[in-house]
Design goal:
Blueprint (H helix, E strand, L loop, with lengths): L1 H15 L3 H20 L2 H6 L7 H19 L1 H12 L2 H6 L16 H40 L2 E4 L11 E4 L2 E4 L3 H7 L10 E5 L5 H12 L4 H4 L4 H4 L10 H5 L6 E4 L16 E6 L2 H14 L8 H9 L8 H10 L6 E5 H6 L1 H11 L6 H10 L2 H5 L15 H4 L18 H15 L23
Parallel strand pairs: 4-5, 4-6, 6-7
Antiparallel strand pairs: 1-2, 2-3
Helix pairs in contact: 1-4, 2-4, 2-7, 5-7, 13-14, 14-21, 17-18
This protein binds 3'-phosphate-adenosine-5'-phosphate sulfate.
The site of 3'-phosphate-adenosine-5'-phosphate sulfate has 19 residues, from helix 9, helix 13 and helix 19.
């Protein structure tokens, strides 16, 4: 603290004598810094003392001292003050300068000098204010970065994301959306889990929405009425997303339905104690990458590159919630815990009723063949695409539905990657998934009966 004080004093000594704007700049800058420091939790962590009682008066003292020294020593301001101290009241009144102490004496100040003084003063205040604002903005940003780094968050400037270069950041081995990082790092770990919660977890674009609707209906004994009365986001909120937010989710009545894209290691700590039912949905990474590319564009992020370039970013762990491999591996390691069910998007395609029956059993809600057949109809791709409680059309105006021409429910097929990937790129993805084969996890990335380019046959 002594060193810091010496540094600031030295800085003030160097700046305030010759440059009229600098002392004002430094003073305002100091006040801004103090405001930032006071508001942050950094004060407890670093200074281990209450800022309001020690650091604040010290800063104010230093800066006000520097300002008064500057005022005393800088000639145009000195003249200005002398003028105010010595001009006669009638003269001040005449110039519209208001109240003046009766102790004032007569002086002779040339009128052109006075206007010069006023202009100089205005210039000083304006430059001071602009400088202080700029410095405060730079300082605030730098301080934010410093604070994040102290918490283990590393900002990534990735030009691929166009104007939103700081779209992603790295935290505890994962690439995460910068917009959600504060919630993920500060609040999610302490979120209170309940034993009777039902969770759907998965890497983005793995078919979570499809799974959410299936799980919701099975768990509510096929309550199609409530499913039709609110959006999937309201019934089955996304944990780390600001809408509706952790507070609202905490206040929901049981049983709660919660979706998250976080890997197991970043989910609430409570999950080790409480044992809610968790369904992890996984999809082959090639289709996941293609779908995530389309979704990133749908959200309005301008990308500097093609789908293939995006897929390369996927392999380099530069897409949100990556690395995909680690995400899936962490979940696979949990599959023998009694409360975790591992389901693939391709299984839902291949054998819907068999897979849905398995989910029903896992949830303790065995379902009849007729119920599963009705469910299959309700959650078919076309039906979900046209269902305004499931197709995210409530984001129209926020997302770029018109610009991309593709909605949230884009193709819903297995094997779309073949329309976009070169054989070399596909090989790189195969090399990645081969690492999971030794763990007994294999992926289907092509279904003969699912021709992605075949037009959908709509049955009445
Ligand atoms: S999100 O935003 O991460 O929660 O998205 P998510 O729901 O996980 O994945 C979206 C992809 O799943 C497809 N989808 C379906 N496929 C088949 N049948 C049904 N009923 C269905 N519902 C959603 C959706 O179309 C997205 O995949 P792509 O390949 O982009 O079409």
């Amino acid at each position: 603290m002594v060193a810091f004080r010496c540094c600031v004093n030295q800085m003030l000594r160097l700046t305030h004598v010759n440059n009229p704007g600098s002392a004002v700049n430094v003073s305002l800058f100091g006040v801004c810094w103090h405001r930032i420091l006071c508001r942050s939790t950094f004060k407890q962590a670093v200074f281990k003392m209450p800022l309001n009682h020690t650091f604040a008066p010290m800063l104010c003292n230093m800066f006000s001292r520097s300002l008064s020294t500057f005022v005393r020593e800088t000639s145009p301001i000195k003249k200005h003050f002398t003028f105010f101290r010595t001009a006669c009241p009638s003269e001040l009144k005449q110039r519209g300068l208001g109240y003046c102490s009766p102790r004032v004496r007569h002086v002779t100040t040339a009128p052109h000098d006075r206007s010069r003084i006023r202009n100089l003063l205005i210039a000083t205040y304006v430059s001071g204010a602009i400088g202080a604002t700029l410095l405060a903005a730079i300082g605030y940003r730098a301080f934010g970065r410093f604070k994040k780094r102290a918490r283990g968050i590393e900002e990534i400037d990735e030009p691929f994301y166009g104007r939103r270069k700081q779209y992603i950041c790295r935290y505890r081995g994962y690439t995460l959306p910068s917009s959600l990082i504060d919630t993920i790092a500060n609040d999610v770990p302490w979120f209170e889990v309940r034993d009777d919660d039902i969770w759907v977890v998965g890497f983005p674009k793995s078919g979570a929405t499809w799974m959410q609707e299936i799980v919701y209906l099975i768990a509510t004994d096929f309550d199609y009425e409530s499913a039709g009365s609110a959006t999937i986001e309201d019934r089955f909120p996304y944990l780390e997303y600001p809408i509706p937010g952790l507070k609202a989710i905490s206040a929901m009545s049981s049983p709660r339905f919660i979706k998250s894209h976080l890997p197991f290691s970043l989910l609430p700590k409570d999950l080790t104690e409480k044992k809610p039912k968790i369904i992890y949905i996984v999809r082959n990474p090639k289709d996941t990458a293609v779908s995530l590319h389309a979704f990133t564009r749908l959200q309005g992020t301008k990308l500097n590159g093609t789908v293939e370039n995006f897929a390369e970013m996927f392999l380099k762990d530069l897409v949100i919630y990556g690395p995909w491999l680690k995400h899936v591996q962490e979940a696979w390691e949990q599959k023998n815990e009694g409360n975790v069910l591992f389901v693939s998007y391709e299984d839902l395609h291949r054998d819907f009723r068999g897979t849905a029956g398995q989910i029903a059993k896992f949830l303790g809600k065995p379902a009849s063949e007729a119920q599963l057949a009705e469910l299959e109809q309700h959650v078919s791709f076309r039906s979900m695409q046209n269902n305004d409680k499931l197709n995210y059309s409530w984001y129209k105006g926020f997302w770029d539905f018109e610009g991309t021409q593709e909605g949230f429910m884009r193709k819903g097929k297995v094997g779309d990657w073949k329309n976009h990937f070169s054989p070399e790129l596909a090989n790189q993805f195969d090399a990645m998934t081969a690492k999971l084969e030794s763990l007994g996890l294999t992926f289907v990335d092509d279904l003969p009966e699912s021709d992605v380019n075949k037009p959908e046959i709509v049955t009445a």
